[in-house]
Amino acid sequence: MSPEVSVSGTKVILSLSYPVHLHTDVITVAYSKPASNPLKTASGGEAATFSPQTVTNRVYPEGPAYVSSVIENVSPSVLEMTFSMTLVNTQHPPASAFSVNSKFSYPEMSPKLLSPVQKSYYLSPALSLMEM
Length: 132
Hints:
Blueprint: E1 4-8, E2 11-15, E3 27-31, E4 50-55, E5 66-70, E6 78-83, E7 112-115, E8 118-123, E9 129-130
Antiparallel strand pairs: 1-2, 3-4, 5-6, 6-8, 7-8, 8-9
């Protein structure tokens, strides 16, 4: 990818020669300070060379993409999954569409939509997942 470069305040904008299509693609960026026209401040300070750094890739597919999951101390029996797009709270996939794995054994689970972008699961005291 050979980018076009522009600078605006604290940001350097690289216009890529072709778009990134996959949200799973790992993109990196590096900077090698050139002998002429390096990145610099108004007072003459020059940006140092830096090795490849991972770029946050927020290019998502047309449908909702999995973003993250969390179990919090406040509610250790709830697993929340967040997606890239708002989900419709009308019909839920069957429990068999999901699985939770751990070093402990967790039997069956059923999804319950708590918010438009999160799926949640309830872990009962008996260590089985059930609908909330």
